[in-house]
Structures are given as C-alpha cells and as structure tokens.
Amino acid sequence: MNGFNLHISRNRKINLMIKRLFDVVIALTLFILMLPLTIVFSVILFFELREFPIFVQERGLTLEKHRFRIFKLKTIKTESDHHSKLDDNNNIFLKPFLSEKISPFAKWLRRTGLDEIPQFINVLMGQMSIIGPRPLMIHDLEILKSDYPEFYAERNKLNSKPGITGLWQLFGNRNEGVANLTYLDYLYEKYSSLKLDFILLLHTLPVVTAAKNSDAIFHFSQYYVKAQNKQYDFSSKLKVNLDLPVDVFDLILETAHEKSGNYVVEVPDSWWYVSNTMEDYEASRKPRIFEIDKTSVSNKKTA
After folding, report:
1. What's phi and psi for 168, nearest 5 deg?
2. SS3 assignment, position 282
3. Could you tell me which residues come within 8 angstroms of residue 239 by beta carbon, excluding any fewer than 6 positions away?
4. Start-to-end Cα distance in the chain
5. CB proximity list for 105: less than 8 A, separation 6 or greater
C-alpha cells in the first residue's frame, strides 16, 4: 500500500512539474508576443484615464489560500464613490454600476480579456497558472465566506493555483452565482489534466478574438442572479450538465471514469440523450441529443 501511495505521489509531482513548465513556456511566449500590444494599450489608457495604466489588486482563491497581488491593465478611473458602491454591493458576479465611466476602448479591452495580459507576470512568478480557478477580490471573498459558508468551505479545499482562464472563466454562468463557480472549480480540481489544460487554452482563443469574455461589468445576460438553493454533490460522483463543449465534456468523463469509475450526467428536463459511448466524437458517431416535444410528452403522461 505504501508503494502504491508513493507511486501516486511521484506521478503527482511529475504532473505538477510538467504543468509548471507548460505555464512558464506559454506565459513567457505570449507575454513577449503581446508586449507591443500591451504598450499600445497602456498608452491609450494613460491618456483616457490620466492615471498609470497598470494597477495591482490583492486577490485570492480564498481568504486563507493563494493570496497574492494581481497585475491588470486599468480600465476604470480611480474614484472614491466606486469603492463605496462596491461596499454596498453583495453581488460578487455582477457589477453593472461600474460601467458608467468606462470608455468604449476599455469596454472592448475587458470583453476580450486582454486587460489581463499583465497576469502573465503572476504566472512567471509562480503565483498563478494559465488554467485554474478564478481568483476573487478580497471583498468578494469576504461576502462568499459570510453569505455562502458551505460553498466557501468547498472552495477552501482546492489546491490548484488560481488561473487566468479556466472552466468557470470560459463556461461559467454568472446568473447561477456562487454554486456554478464552486462546482466548476470542483470539477477542474478533481479531473484536471494537461490535456484538459490544453483544450481549455484552445477554447480561450475564440473568446478573446470574438470579445465574448464573461465580465462582471459588461455581462451578456440579465443582471439577475438566481437564489442559491441548488444542491451539489461534492462526493466521488461527477455531476455535469451539457452546457460544456463536447470535447471538454468528453475529456472530463474520460478522466472521471479512469479515477473513480462512476459518474452521473445531468441534462435539462427538455432534452433526451441517445448514446451509450463517450469515446469517439467523429461525425458519424456523435452522441445525438433530441429536444422532446413537450406536447407529446404531456399526452403520453396523460395516457
């Protein structure tokens, strides 16, 4: 048994070393390639804001874990009333009131996620990873801890370094609030792999180029958060819904099967899944998803 645990520990160390190498190579390459753009963006922001265009803000995975100072391009002019509004706002995912004084250029910068280019420095310093859970502001973490202690406790179990991009950053639903964030972070922690990191990195590219970054200020959906009454199973079983892209969904299921041998797939009530394999997604063998005709279903139930 000790030999088995030693083997697991050795594999984990090797994976962490490879992930660190992946982070350094990607961060250094992208930072060098995007340095000219960063300089141009900084000059534009300097003239728009009349302030130094880089700002530093303390963030963390939780109040106790992975706290560090994050680097970002500044898109909001420093004003005292912004801080008071933040203190009055208990919504850690939607902050539309901050949009009032943001220029069109800063708005585009946030929607592309290019305001986060300086975070490559945090990656090179070993404080962040390219892929990982989203670090939150200290103010938001305090709200999370006081208002949602169950979800905060689960987040406090995470050991992954915070990431520039990741499952929640790409596919999270701000309208589902804390539950959605916590569960996607949990999924990444439990079923992460270098292959998943690479796939998530590829999914980040169209988000940047199409300016569809999920942003607390300029959110694409309604400024509304559902009540946090959804229960999640933080056990050995995997619960996933089909909001994830097929390749990401497939890889998570594959990893889940290898690690625990069981999982649960959740689908919306109005959908029906027909397939017994998740191994091959070529066109001829893609799992088929059909929307059920609600009228016919009601008739069948009545019959």
Report:
1. -70, -40
2. coil
3. 183, 232, 233, 263, 264, 265, 266
4. 57
5. 44, 45, 48
DSSP string, 181-202: HHHHHHHHHHH--HHHHHHHHH
Type and span of the H or E element at 289:
strand 288-291
Query: Residue with structure tokens 């394999």?
Result: 277
pLDDT at 203 over 60: yes
> Among positive and negative, which fits the CA dihedral 230, 161, 128, 64?
positive
Q: How far apart are CA 212 and CA 209, in angstroms?
A: 8
Residue written as token pair 């279903």: 297
pLDDT for the residue numbered 99: 66
Q: Are 180 and 111 in contact (CB under 8 A)?
A: no
- Write out the two tokens for 173: 């639903």
CB 235 within 8 A of CB 190: no
Nearest CA to 116 out of 127, 130, 103, 104 is that of 130
Kindly report, residue by residue over 112-149, the tens digit of the pLDDT: 989 999 999 999 999 999 999 999 999 899 999 998 88
State how far the Cα of 144 lies from the Cα of 150, in Å rounded to an integer: 9
The C-alpha atoms of residue 172 and residue 182 are separated, in whole angstroms, by 10
How many residues make up the chain in this entry?
303
